[in-house]
User: Fold these one by one.
Assistant:
Number 1:
Amino acid sequence: MSSITTSPAGNTVTTPAERTGAHTDEAAALIGGARERIDTLDDRIIGLVQERMAVSAVIQEARITSGGRRVNLSRETAVLSHYRDALGKPGTALAMTLLELCRGRV
């Protein structure tokens, strides 16, 4: 029995198992629900990153307006350490990406 069907409009429709790579409908349902949760988490993470970027811009503006530099390297080092301590080596890469996103917006 083929798991690919055709809709009345002639479009190919795949089963949940095929969309998820699972071998059973039960696993496909679990994966589908978990993916929805991940999508929701990703949306929240993106929103938080955008909020972080906005706050960083305020800080940079204040620092530059007061005669300081746009970037505070000791603060960036602390952020890198915080992420590394919490998430291991990949945390450092994540922190670098965040710092890069937040630099130079002013």
Note: The chain has a mean pLDDT of 88.
Number 2:
Amino acid sequence: MRKLTSAWAALAGAAVGLSALVGCDASPLARLQVGVSTEADVRRALGEPAAVYDAPDGAREFEYPRQPEGHENWFVTVGADGLVRAIRQALVPATFARVVPGLDKAEVRRLLGRPARTTFYALKREEVWDWRHGDAATPMFFSVTFDADGRVVASGSGPDPRREHVGL
């Protein structure tokens, strides 16, 4: 029994060491370079995107959401030449400001990426999409309310309710 316990302890130690090593690379995005990295590099670093959006000029935008537990949603634009043109974090005030009444769900998804959660309110015939943003010290939610036609009627940001309920 003692051998088995020490084997498990060694295995657990190796797992902790491996997770620490993986944690040293703050983000696979750090390996990507605008104007240098290719679509293949993006897929190797980040995996398959949640969605791909085509642009009229032949560029494509790859969506990499980190919701529901993360506080970021990333978009990587690859030009028609196959090189990375831009890398953007969608969950920032400048992007939130672009969410205005009248936009439809597809337009909001294209701006912000996949939400952390969606809630439908049958009596009001409204749907609310929420994204986590901010950081560990100040976790926030950005919410968008859609009417029965799937159009934005309101949006706003506030504290992450999970943090308030646990008393942190």
Note: Helices lie at 2-24, 39-46, 93-96, 105-112, 161-165.
Number 3:
Amino acid sequence: MYGGDCEARREFADAVRACHRATVEPYWNQERSELIDASARCARLMLDGGDLLLRSLCPSLLRWRPPVLEVSCPRPVEVRLQGRGLVITPTVFSSIAVSLIWDPLDTTQPPRPTVPVLLRPARCKA
């Protein structure tokens, strides 16, 4: 069983739900639709060749030059995949064109470039 203060956990859960209602829920239908569209675009590009998908994301910051993935954000990095693959991670809360989640000391986990997928940022309805 979980330890700790049960009432504190309930208050925290209520706060997370209230935050979700205020920040995500008003935009979720639009964002979900754009995520589905982005997923379909990525799937089509993968079927035509994985390098097409990489070139479509942000060619000035992300390049595949076998066997090296070059990422230029925030500084130039060369990643040797060594058979680990690559996990492209869509983001909805980032305005950064490309970022990289990667631990160069962990050769078991694939690098994860993150790319924004929303066509336009969600706007507050004030």
Note: The chain has three helices and six strands.
